[in-house]
Here is the input.
Amino acid sequence: MNIDQIFKNNEAWVNEKLGTDPDYFKNLSEGQNPDVLYIGCSDSRVTAEEIMGAKPGEAFVMRNIANMVSNLDLSAMSVVNYAVSHLKVSHIIVCGHYGCGGVKAAMQSQDLGILNPWLRNIRDVYRLHNQELNQLKTEEEKYRRLVELNVQEQCVNVIKTADVQIAYRNRNLTVHGWVMDMETGKLIDLKIDFDKVLKGIMEIYHLD
Ligand code: CO
Here is the structure.
């Protein structure tokens, strides 16, 4: 991408917005009230707002390699805390995608330097679901399933946080696990049964 072009694009976007609503930026600058926290992959092809049709102000977004929610990641924990306890979002979405380079890398025996500790979280997901994954015949099937299971485990990591547990008890908050299929462009709801998942983990992880 040409940097000069980016500024031209920005100017065109500003003019387009002002063309339909002269107060667009005045209103936008008054504050945000998003209903959705979106946690997705940094992959340049899985653009959070565009795939959801979300406008500025509608989605609070965090993206990192392989849509991870690590309790040692100060950024992720701060994003969840702010979105749940201050912005009071009603939905938390963890959205993975087939063809995820981070998940692929975690399936390979390779020293990737600084990426090792990050990707090890995905290897841990593999180990947790080793039995199921090893029953699958092809590497491609394992790869796709690991993308889904990684989304599920990151949803579980979201539920492990105190902010989400408090919100779960006191108001409407739903956690969603999705996968974006790049070959079709479609979002797939994994329909994770959170009541069941919660029962299984709350004995260990409940904080209050
Ligand atoms: Co990815």
